[in-house]
Amino acid sequence: MSEGILLEQVTRGTLLPEPQRVARLQAALPQIEAAVAGETDEVALQATLACLLWETLPQTNWCGFYRRVAAQLLAVGPYQGSMGCLRIPFTRGVCGACARTQETQLVPDVQAFPGHIACDGSTRSELVIPILRSGQVLAVLDLDCPHLAGFSLSEARLLEALLGRIFSRVES
User: 172: which residues sit within 8 A by CB, 6+ positions away?
Assistant: First the structure.
């Protein structure tokens, strides 16, 4: 499947109503899973997911991965959008909090998040989901949005399940 996601085109930066965003994501999930079926390389999966989720989630201004490269350090991985932060310690920002706690971070207003790192000053909300193996963070999926409350708990749960299914087969 090299054509990407077959969904109605939506202008980048558009924040659709939550039910439409969830329906759009649900429609994309089988296509995303078909595109990565059989792939086990972590970087190939991250690069493909960054691309396909970028197409699926038009409200994002950044969509990608930060990989764990040391005990308490993330480094930018495959992504779509403007330049990301190169390195994020577990002690800083939404991505660091996700890696440190190993819990999804759904932040409706990044200005209210203590220690938020403004890699892109236009970001107003964020969703960060950990990817775990054997109790360790491999990476985090970072989604940024220029709108307040750009992501919902329903979207977070759908993406958590997707990442769990896909990264359960990654090569060790």
Answer: 133
Strand order in the sheet with 125-133: 87-89, 73-81, 62-70, 136-145, 125-133, 105-107
Confidence of residue 1 (pLDDT cuts 50, 70, 90): very low
We report the CATH number of the domain holding residue 161 as: 3.30.450.40
pTM: 0.95
> Between the CA atoms of 47, 49, 55 and 59, what dihedral angle is there, to the nearest 10 degrees?
-100
- Domain boundaries, position 117: 18-167
Q: Do the domain assignments include residue 7?
A: no
pLDDT confidence band for 118 (50 / 70 / 90): confident
